[in-house]
UniProtKB/TrEMBL annotation:
Pfam families: Las1. Residues 35-46, 57-67 have a biased composition (Basic and acidic residues). GO terms for molecular function: endonuclease activity. Residues 35-67, 154-195 are annotated as: Disordered. This is Las1-like protein. Residues 156-177 have a biased composition (Low complexity). One of its GO terms (cellular component) is Las1 complex. One of its GO terms (biological process) is maturation of LSU-rRNA. The lineage of its organism: Eukaryota, Metamonada, Carpediemonas-like organisms, Kipferlia. It comes from Kipferlia bialata.
């Protein structure tokens, strides 16, 4: 649990680790609650009196009400774990535009259909007793452990849908403690890691790769932003155009407009909303105006008053 908590602070966890962490959290809480109730019962037995033979005081009634509220909280946590776990596991197998019913996905994945039925009931407001939810959580945990956390499984994957791409070895933190079964669902972290291009080493190549990635619609531009440490100057963008693919037909205006929405204020030299933008061509309030100023500074020999003040 401690290791998974550390992973959760660093990055978005894969579905298998999320579900495992949620189930263990609730089951450990439920176990501590049951242990506390057993200790209270044993203490009453050692005192030689039963709870029914002693007149309840205000403190006793308050303790009973607190225990009942704790049971309700744990029951709601079990509801969330079962409903969220089944949804996450099945949604990780959704491919294509049309969504496949959860029952079909569960059959293909080997997930017990009883869990899908319980999830359906929970979604429509019908909450079974805590013992049923407890058994459902244990059944879900057994499936997750057997599918994703088996030590003798091959190193690539878990259940896979027919026609889907086979999973690849995870590069997320899950690669350390587990060996995935064949064809595991491709989590958000593994998809993002696999989509990342090699991090450029020099600044100019990183800028060119950033613009090209934005033009091609790539969602993962973190490696390129990480390689660009200093604020971006308009003159640097002018040098990007020859480095871009010939068929991209990317103009300087398009390059500026493409980079602007994806750069953070710190990256652009704007450390706070109130700080003057002296090293950047963009501001948080009006990035497009900054783009126009940058284009004016690069379009001809004349220097605008704003450009002279900022040292362009």
């Amino acid at each position: 649990m401690a290791r998974m908590d550390v992973w959760a602070r660093r990055a978005r966890l894969p579905v298998s680790v999320q579900v495992t962490r949620d189930i263990f959290t609730v089951l450990l809480t439920l176990g501590r609650q049951e242990e506390r109730e057993r200790e209270e019962k044993a203490e009453r037995a050692r005192s030689g009196v039963s709870g029914a033979s002693v007149r309840q005081t205000g403190r006793d009634r308050q303790r009973a009400a607190d225990r009942e509220r704790e049971r309700n909280v744990v029951t709601l946590a079990l509801v969330s774990v079962v409903q969220r776990g089944v949804t996450l596991l099945c949604d990780s197998q959704q491919t294509g535009v049309r969504r496949v019913p959860l029952g079909v996905l569960a059959s293909e994945m080997g997930l017990p259909l009883s869990l899908v039925d319980i999830r359906h009931s929970l979604g429509h407001g019908s909450i079974p007793c805590s013992s049923v939810l407890h058994r459902a959580a244990l059944s879900l945990l057994e499936y997750v452990l057997g599918t994703y956390w088996t030590s003798d499984a091959p190193e690539t994957g878990g259940p896979s849908r027919p026609g889907s791409r086979p999973g690849s070895r995870p590069t997320s933190p899950t690669a350390t403690p587990i060996r995935m079964g064949k064809g595991a669902p491709r989590s958000g972290v593994s998809r993002e890691v696999e989509a990342q291009a090699p991090v450029p080493l020099d600044r100019q190549t990183a800028l060119a790769a950033l613009v090209a990635a934005c033009v091609q619609g790539e969602s993962c531009i973190t490696p390129y932003l990480a390689a660009i440490v200093e604020p971006i100057h308009p003159c640097e963008v002018e040098a990007l155009v020859p480095l871009l693919p010939v068929d991209s037909s990317l103009s300087l205006r398009q390059a500026l407009c493409t980079i602007a929405p994806h750069c953070s204020p710190v990256l652009l030299g704007q450390t706070s909303p109130d700080a003057p933008s002296t090293t950047s061509i963009w501001t948080q309030e009006a990035p497009l105006e900054g783009v126009e100023l940058g284009l004016m500074a690069l379009s001809g020999p004349e220097v605008t008053e704003e450009g002279a003040r900022n040292g362009w």
